[in-house]
Amino acid sequence: MFARSHRVVAIDLAGHGTSGDSRERFTIAAFAADVAAVVAKEKLERIVLIGHSMGGPVVLAAAPPLAGKVALVVGVDNMQNVEQQWPEEQFRQMREAMARDFKATTDGFVRSMFPKDADQKLVASIAADMAAAPPRVAISAIEELRTFDEAQAIAAAGVPVVCINATMWPTRRGG
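^ that's the sequence the OP posted. Answer follows.
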């Protein structure tokens, strides 16, 4: 839809899909710098940054260095509750499970994000795609997400931030 009236540039973050995975760590800051590099290379002047899942924190982090170019940041399936902290024990258990059996842990985690009535072929496809990722990339990125301060990043974005979330995990409103 957007491509009919706007230029759309989709970014494949380092370590995801067919992009390189040669980094030692896969950080939100490095991903945000990649976004800024693409904006510069493509000579984009007025942009809306849209990030799905982990892409939400990435585009939030990319907004301040791109000040004057970014009109809006859109998070999709993320930032449901920016004050919520990932409990250390829960994170440790997830990280250990991923280190032991990345494929099975990721498959189960991905499937848990869908409602029971979701198209099971689609769910299986997404779960298989994510479980095929290099474990070191995913574990490094998850470590980054655990400590990323979404509330601070929203305040620093300097532009409006809009979140689009499913009813399964709705956006929590302040108050």
